[in-house]
Each structure stands twice: as C-alpha cells, then as structure tokens.
Give the backbone structure.
Amino acid sequence: MTVRLLIPLLLLLCSPLMAFDHQRWDALLADNVQWQRNGVTTVVNYRGFQTDRKALNRYLEALSSVSADDFGKWSGDEQLAFLINAYNAFTIDLILRQDSLPDSIRDIGSFFSGPWDQRFFTLLGKERTLDEVEHEMIRGNPALMDPRIHFAVNCASVGCPALRPEAYRGETLEQQLADSTRRFLSDRQRNHFNENPARLEVSKIFDWYEEDFVDAAGSLHHYLLQYADTLEIPASHRKALDAEQLKIQFLDYDWSLNQ
C-alpha cells in the first residue's frame, strides 16, 4: 500500500465515530410537516407518514440499532439531537400504531398506562417509553439538559411547540433550538402579554417544567425576561418582570392532534 493511500486510512481509523445519519428522517419531515400561521406552528400529515411507513420503519430500525457504546462516543450536541429526533419519530410511530387516528394522543392507552408509558420501542439496547427518553435520558442527564428541549420534543398536539420540518443535527443544534424557542414564544395564541390588568400569559409548559427554567435562569420570570422582545413585553413592564412582580398566568393546553 502506498503512503498516499495509507495516510487517509489511518486518519479514518483514528477519527471519532461518525454521528448518526438523520437524512431519512429529514426527508420524511420535509414531505409531511408544514409551517403554519407565519411559521409559529406546524401541521403534520399523518396519512402521508402512513404512506411512507416503510421509510419511517427503516429510520426507526436504524435508531434502535445504535448501541450505548457508540452513542457514548458522540459529542453532546450529537447525542441530544439523536434523542430529540428519536422522541419525535417514535411519537409519530405511536400515533400510526392505532387502528385509526386518535383525536388526541391522550386517547392512547388506559387510565393506568397512558401514551407516554407505552414500552413499544428499543433505544440504546433497552426497551423504552417516551417518558424515559424525555425525563431520564434527556432531562435526567445534566450533560445534555437544556430547557429549550421543551420547544423541540413534540407530543403530537396542537398545544405543543412545532415539530420542525427537518431533523435536528449536532452541527446545527444550537441554531435549531434557538429558532424553535423563538417561534414558539412568538405565537400569540400560546404566549402573550396582557396590558389590563398587566400579566404575562404563557403556555402550560412553563408550569409543568418550571424547575427546568428556574435551574437555567434562577426563576421563571428571569428566564422569560431573556425573551422580552420576542414576547413583545412593553418596556414599562420589564422592570416588574425582572423584580418577579409581574403576574404570570398559565394558559389551557390544547391536546388535539396536530394534524
């Protein structure tokens, strides 16, 4: 073997493990998810995903084939992108497993075992539930936890932040999380300021996961203060928000299927 051929081979053998290829998921999302209402939310064509079921199954099988050892060799951004995509893809899978499209994801399962408790897929060598991916593998891992994941994982509901029509990727994760957060907070149906009486009305997500936003910024008020421009909070009320004196009210959540 010549030196010219040997050097590239040695570089390949010594390089870190290549990240997971999300190209198939990228194509499925591009074909079946569309932005709506000036880009603050999306609608999902579940029947289109059903038509593309073979391609979706191949992607899910590829996700399930990744070992914990290989996963551990990736960068933090690559790991987090993988888990967000896995959560979203297996949520689509769960919807399609039903005999007919449910009116709401909460119609799946029973009183004792809801949709997020269903153990129906394998990830990193173990049978998993959606709750385990979100709460243990992401939120339970300090190295990966970022409160903006709450604007990236999608629960197949109208009240959820948008399912992006593209896969999350390690190399673009920061920009994608920032953009998903901005889009969600720009949605005046789910987050808005009311002048009289002065109060900030925001998604129930900020109530359910308040501890994550507190951990990131010291308080929910201070977390939202970072996005005062996006939320269009008048300058005259930002001091009250900074002093944690502006009332925060949580809006009802719409669990209708995001079709």
